[in-house]
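Retro notes (design track)

What went well: tokenization of the new backbones is finally stable.
What didn't: we kept losing track of which sequence belonged to which structure.
Fix going forward: every design gets posted as structure first, then sequence, in one message. First example under the new rule, 335 residues:
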């Protein structure tokens, strides 16, 4: 840790924080000094980084003195509380929460999609919602080529989207249900074991959930397409990791499935997994712990009388590309 940048990870003991530490190491991010920050109850614990034990510290406003990059995954309230301290210390805050995403002066960045926006920051850059990131890595190249005008998404979101407690509840309920035991939902509104829950985050006045509206608003901001028509249904599914999405896309121009495959094969951050004859298509088990988003089941929308509609299915690791990896990639834009 002799050369490079001083990096802080806020929320270092959470699922995303742990993945941020691993990602910094795996991508050989030039870390001179790594500061791991968490709540008072986690202070004193250690985490491995490049073979060294790093002691976790209690996060305070003074924690960011001398820090170059502060990667935050500690929740919206904590991000709001520490924003001024981070910016005043001269650090760049890369925030994984929803706290600042829709603020006009905060760039909302997916490095494969809109890296130029990152340079417009005023001390804070926001990581988009995980489902938005996974979707747009695959959709943005198509939008650039054929201009997307309408997008309807249905998501299949893993239990880990609710953090470590979500994964633990799925594992516990699976055992309990197989053993015929009674269950008591806690992390989710209903039973998640062997069930689907079409409810993620709170319901809004228009009967969409906050999660679904994040997809709408964030997509428009990232693509600089305020007129884009977007609708979404978000569903929690009983798998541990990696989100999937069924996408119905309408373009301004005619487009064929072969054109879509060709565009995506040359797109950064995308792996085309589209060979139905050999049972190859995106699945969360294959996307887990992968940096790239998998895209497949690419076909013409037969409900249309023209050739401007495409159906596609994507899977991506929301802990990695949907959170930790995207944050580290944003920091990499500045090194």
């Amino acid at each position: 840790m002799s050369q490079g940048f001083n990096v802080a990870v806020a929320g270092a003991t959470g699922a995303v924080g742990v993945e941020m530490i691993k990602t910094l190491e795996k991508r050989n991010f030039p870390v001179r000094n790594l500061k791991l920050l968490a709540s008072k109850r986690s202070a004193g614990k250690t985490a491995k980084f490049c073979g060294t034990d790093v002691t976790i510290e209690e996060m305070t406003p003074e924690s960011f003195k001398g820090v170059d990059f502060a990667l935050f995954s500690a929740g919206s309230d904590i991000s709001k509380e520490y924003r001024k301290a981070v910016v005043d210390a001269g650090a760049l805050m890369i925030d994984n929460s929803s706290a600042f995403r829709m603020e006009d002066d905060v760039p909302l960045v997916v490095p494969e999609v809109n890296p130029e926006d990152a340079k417009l920051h005023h001390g804070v850059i926001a990581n988009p919602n995980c489902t938005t990131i996974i979707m747009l890595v695959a959709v943005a190249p198509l939008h650039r080529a054929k201009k997307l005008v309408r997008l309807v998404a249905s998501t299949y979101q893993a239990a880990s989207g609710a953090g470590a407690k979500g994964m633990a509840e799925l594992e516990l309920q699976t055992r309990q249900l197989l053993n015929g035991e009674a269950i008591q939902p806690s992390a989710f509104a209903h039973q998640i074991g062997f069930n689907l829950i079409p409810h993620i985050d709170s319901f809004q006045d228009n009967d969409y959930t906050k999660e679904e509206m994040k997809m709408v608003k964030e997509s428009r901001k990232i693509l600089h397409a305020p007129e884009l028509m977007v609708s979404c249904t978000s569903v929690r599914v009983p798998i541990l990791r990696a989100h999937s999405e069924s996408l119905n896309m309408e373009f301004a121009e005619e487009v064929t499935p072969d054109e879509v495959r060709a565009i995506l094969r040359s797109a950064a951050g995308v792996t085309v997994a589209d060979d139905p004859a050999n049972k190859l298509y995106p699945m969360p088990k294959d996307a887990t712990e992968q940096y790239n988003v998998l895209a497949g089941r690419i076909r013409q929308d037969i409900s249309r009388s023209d050739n401007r509609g495409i159906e596609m299915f994507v899977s991506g690791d929301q802990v990695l590309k949907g959170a930790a990896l995207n944050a580290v990639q944003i920091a990499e834009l500045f090194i």
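Added context from the reviewer: The helical segments are 15-26, 76-88, 130-146, 164-178, 210-223, 257-265, 284-287, 320-332.
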